Amino acid sequence: MALIKKLRGFEPKWGADCFMAENATLIGDLIMGDQCSVWYHAVIRADVNQIRIGNRVNIQDGAVIHCTFQKADTQIGHDVSIGHRALVHGCKLHDKVLVGMGAIVMDGAEVESHSIIAAGSVVTQNTKISKGSIYAGIPAKKIAEVSDELKDGEIERIAKNYIFYSSWYKK
C-alpha cells in the first residue's frame, strides 16, 4: 500500500477504482477522483496548500505534484497524464492535458484543455497556455497546434491506456 499521510488535520481522499503503487506518497489536503493511478515513486504532497485532481488522471513514475503555501494550490482536471519524473507545482491543468516526461509546470501557470507540454519543457511562472497548444523548450514556447490525430492518438490514448495498465496491478 502507498504511503498515505494525514497532516494538519487533512487526510488524502480518492474515488473508486484507483491504483496507488506501493511506494507512491500521498500527503495532506488531497482530493482525487475515480480511476486515477499514482505510479512508483510518485509524490502528491498537499502539505502546504490543497491539491485537487479529477477523474482518470495518471501520475507516472517519479512525478511530483506540489503547491505553494498561502499562494498557489494545484488543480488538475479529468483525463490528464503527468509523465515520468514531471513536476507540476501550484498551477492549473484543465481536462485532457498531457505533461511530457521530465517537464516542469510552475506556479500560476494555466494549461487549457487538449494541450501538450513536451518532454523536458519548463513552463514558467504565470504562463497561460491556450486550448489545443503544444509548448516545448526552456522556457516553453508555443510550437504548434494540437491536431485531431494528437488529441486522439496521444492525449486520450495515454489517459485510457493508464486505466488499462493499472487494472493489471489491482488483481
Report on the architecture of this protein.
- The chain is mainly beta.
- Helices cover 13% and strands 37% of the residues.
- Strands 1, 2, 4, 6, 8, 9, 11, 12, 14, 15, 17 and 18 form a twelve-stranded parallel β-sheet that branches.
- Strand 19 (133-136) and strand 20 (141-145) form a beta hairpin.
- The longest helix is centred in the last third of the chain and has 22 residues, at 148-169.
- The radius of gyration is 15 Å and the shape is globular.
Radius of gyration equals 15 Å
Query: What's the order of the H and E elements?
Result: EEEEEEEEEEEEEEEEEEEEH
Strand content: 35-45%
Shape: globular
User: In percent, how helical is the residue content?
Assistant: 10-25%
How would you sum up the major sheet?
Answer: 12 strands, parallel
Compute the separation of the termini in Å: 14 Å
> What is the number of helices?
1
The stretches of 5 or more residues where confidence is low (pLDDT under 50) are: none
Sheet/helix structural class: mainly beta
Count of DSSP E strands? 20
Mean pLDDT: 97
